[in-house]
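We were asked to recover a plausible sequence for a given structure. The inputs and outputs are reproduced exactly as logged, with field labels preserved.

PROBLEM: sequence recovery
POSITIONS: 382
GIVEN STRUCTURE:
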């Protein structure tokens, strides 16, 4: 009699996307002998509902795959299409939505607010950020008390809400005393306009200095970090992640697919597909060009048999990869079509064994960027 593998799966019950109850099922599968011994497990786990993780050491849970609208809402795709993507995200269990005041010149927040209108406010977590210029004025940027308070109030109006679940400092501001910025953030929490606070793309010394001020003055502490992180961009691993784990800070990572390069759609020796991010200057072409080298594209294609053996797309594999890091609370994905949302969320709950992680490392070789000094903010500020 052959040995069987028993997997406990959770699936959502109910007709509404925010229905809170779940029921467990036992799924019995025959042992598999596919590459890495995981394909059958992966196929089964696709029946799972979205899984959720605590944000750092807080009591708030976030969907481990978050929906972000950096280069889509109000920019790459029209408002109606963006709203359809948000609705698709809600339908598949995504409860965490990330944006920023600067995205699409503030239009992204407006579109997201419209898309979430009518959805029970307590059923989702809304994140936004402040720092980058939102106007031409000398104070329409940075982390001064003036700009933080004014930007928060403007974001609340655009998002059509009375509070922000997580408010983040979008970069480190070298021109504002850190005490001033942290005091303003703490006041927003005390005023009930913000529930939690975090930062994006700070390095370890900057994080340490802020935490020291917060502890000394009794301010609410940072609970999140939002860095770029993928199998190709690992600059947070040596310093930011260990410090964050120690201090109860969770990572909400962006670009887990390396601006789409890790999906495998960019082929070595071939032109970038028409309409893709690499061909659209308004959707991150300048950022992705660093990965459009032949050696990178060739290495990425070596990931395809690994993904195939697991029953995953290359995009799902790349998202699952970042979720293996225990300090990651959520991976942010963007989408221009609802079907992309539905495909990418299948990375939720996927567990990659050590041999799979090693095979990915071997395929990418020394191409991933690991230098912690690459994690930097503009000086002088933008």
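RECOVERED SEQUENCE:
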């Amino acid at each position: 009699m052959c040995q069987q593998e028993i997997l406990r799966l959770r699936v959502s019950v109910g007709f509404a996307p925010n229905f809170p109850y779940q029921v467990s099922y036992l799924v019995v599968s025959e042992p598999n002998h596919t590459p890495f011994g995981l394909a059958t497990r992966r196929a089964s786990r696709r029946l799972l509902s979205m899984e959720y993780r605590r944000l750092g050491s807080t009591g708030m849970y976030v969907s481990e795959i978050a929906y972000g609208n950096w280069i889509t809402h109000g920019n790459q795709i029209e408002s109606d299409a963006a709203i359809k993507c948000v609705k698709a995200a809600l339908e598949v269990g995504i409860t965490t939505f990330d944006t920023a005041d600067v995205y699409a010149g503030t239009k992204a927040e407006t579109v997201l607010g419209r898309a979430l209108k009518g959805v029970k406010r307590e059923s989702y977590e809304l994140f936004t950020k402040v720092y980058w210029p939102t106007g031409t004025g000398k104070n329409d940027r940075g982390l001064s008390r003036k700009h933080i308070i004014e930007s928060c109030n403007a974001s609340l109006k655009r998002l059509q809400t009375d509070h922000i679940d997580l408010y983040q400092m979008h970069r480190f501001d070298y021109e504002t005393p850190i005490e001033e910025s942290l005091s303003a953030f703490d006041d927003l929490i005390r005023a009930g306009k913000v529930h939690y606070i975090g930062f994006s793309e700070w390095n370890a010394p900057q994080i340490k200095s802020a935490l020291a001020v917060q502890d000394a003055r009794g301010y609410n502490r940072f609970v999140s970090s939002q860095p770029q992180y993928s199998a190709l961009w690992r600059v947070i691993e040596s310093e930011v992640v260990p410090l964050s784990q120690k201090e109860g800070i969770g990572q909400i990572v962006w670009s887990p697919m390396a601006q789409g390069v890790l999906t495998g759609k960019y082929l070595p020796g071939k032109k970038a597909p028409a309409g893709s991010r690499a061909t659209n200057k308004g959707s991150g072409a300048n950022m992705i060009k660093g990965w459009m080298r032949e050696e990178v594209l060739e290495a990425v294609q070596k990931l395809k048999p690994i993904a195939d053996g697991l029953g995953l797309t290359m995009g799902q594999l790349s998202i699952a990869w970042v979720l293996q890091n225990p300090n990651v609370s959520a991976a942010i994905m963007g989408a221009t079509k609802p079907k992309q949302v539905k495909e990418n969320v299948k990375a939720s709950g996927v567990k990659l064994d050590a041999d799979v992680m090693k095979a990915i490392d071997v395929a990418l070789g020394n191409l991933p960027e690991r230098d912690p000094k690459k994690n930097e903010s503009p000086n002088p500020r933008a």
